[in-house]
Amino acid sequence: MKKILLTLSIIVAVFASSTAQQAVKVGPLGFILGFYNVKYEKALSDKGSFQIGGNFYNYKLFDIKTTGFGLDAGYRHYFREAIKGAYVSPVLSYDFNSTSVSTIDDTKGKFSTLGISGMFGYQWISGGGFVVDLGLGYGYSIEVSKDDSLLEDYSRGGVRFGFAIGYAF
Fold first, then answer.
1. pTM to 2 decimals?
2. CA dihedral in degrees (78, 83, 86, 87; nearest 10)?
3. CATH code, 99
4. Within 13 Å and on the Cβ side, how many CA atoms surround 40?
5. Which residue, of 44, 105, 131, 140, has the greatest Cβ tally within 10 A?
């Protein structure tokens, strides 16, 4: 986790050296849902931006406990002005997971997935630089690898929801 945060900090510092519009955002629902993320977005043109992010999750649902981290990257096309207003975005992601199932034999194992998503959203920026980003879309994750102890197929699709707050500069 520390390596991911250090890597993201270095990337943010490198991108922050230019004068283009940029934003740093976090998902505020992490403390409730057990899913923490940080995103960095930088305008590339009048209507386009690039966003990278990292996430960490640790949650239990019924008898299944999952812990993992992931990285994602996406291009955002804004309809009026980069990093403000309505956008559409393809996103690629890669997740590393560790899971345990405590039903009968306490099965444990690791797996990783590669995902692709499409998002539609809207990003508000106040006069003081406060950012609110809401998005909705659909994505599909493909199982790339897993331990032999895990029998389930971890490839699946579903609705994607994004909510982040942050600061633009």
1. 0.82
2. 50
3. 2.40.160.20
4. 15
5. 131
* Alpha-carbon Rg for the chain in angstroms: 17
Residue with tokens 């943010």: 12
d(C-alpha 154, C-alpha 156), whole Å: 6
Q: Which of 133, 135, 138, 139 is nearest to 121 (CA)?
A: 135
Convert the pLDDT of each residue in 106-119 to its tens digit: 778 899 999 999 99
Please give the residue that has the higher pLDDT: either 33 or 167. 167
Q: Provide the domain limits for residue 83.
A: 2-168
What pLDDT was estimated at residue 60?
A: 80
Find, among 61, 82, 69, the residue nearest to 38 by Cα: 69
